[in-house]
Specification:
Blueprint lengths: L1 E7 L5 E7 L5 H11 L15 H7 L8 E5 L2
Helix pairs in contact: 1-2
Length: 73
Amino acid sequence: MKTQIQFKKTDGSEGVALIDGPVSSVLQAKRELAAKLDLPPVDAADGEHEDVDAQLFRGDIEPDSIIFDQLGE
């Protein structure tokens, strides 16, 4: 199975990424996209979890625009 992740960039353009394996939540889709694009991690203010939204935003991706679809092989 593969997952297609669609997103909007901060300049208004759109992008698509294809990753291996299933995705079950938007948070997981954000993490998978950040990893696929090799974006550097950003520590959250509480120091306990990474701030994946800030990571995506620094990569010029609108975090709230993430949509994912499961694709069969």
